[in-house]
Specification:
2 helices; four-stranded antiparallel sheet; 2 domains; OB fold (Dihydrolipoamide Acetyltransferase, E2P); mainly beta; single chain
């Protein structure tokens, strides 16, 4: 694969709704992924004001807003199909209200005929299951809303 083909693939991905793309040709393999994260401005960072702007300084945001508890989610690390249980007749891995330990399996995501166990990265309590069984999920899509313990 030459550089022109790679550049063409990048253009196609940029102009599509795809979040991830992988391609292999012989021994060469390419993986492309879009980042949807907007730039982050650090709190307390100085504001840049154009020289022609009035000298008014914006009021700082209330401290209380920064202290509010942030909502946490377990998100999908891949594109695939969500399964809440290891088999159709088995109980779900987790339910609303369950306390989950670090490393505990919370669901299975099937991608390309491979079953991937998704594990929690911290101790938490499941507040909501945000997807239904056998639903297609995207990379980064929230699967569970959780409260850290």
């Amino acid at each position: 694969m030459n550089l022109e083909k790679i550049a063409e693939l990048v253009k196609i991905i940029e102009n599509s709704s795809l979040k991830e793309f992988s391609y292999s040709e012989g021994e060469m393999e390419i993986y492309l992924s879009k980042l949807d994260n907007p730039p982050v401005v650090a709190p307390g960072a100085p504001a840049v004001v154009p020289a022609s702007a009035p000298a008014a300084v914006p009021a700082p945001a209330p401290v209380e807003a920064a202290q509010e508890e942030e909502e946490l989610y377990i998100t999908s690390p891949i594109v695939g199909t969500f399964y809440s249980a290891p088999s159709p007749t088995a109980p779900a891995f987790v339910r609303v209200g369950d306390k989950v330990k670090n490393g505990q399996t919370v669901c299975i995501l099937e991608a390309m005929k491979l079953m991937n166990e998704i594990q929690c990265e911290y101790d938490c309590e499941i507040e909501a299951v945000l997807v239904s069984n056998e639903q297609k999920v995207e990379y980064g899509q929230p699967l569970f809303r959780v409260k850290k313990l």
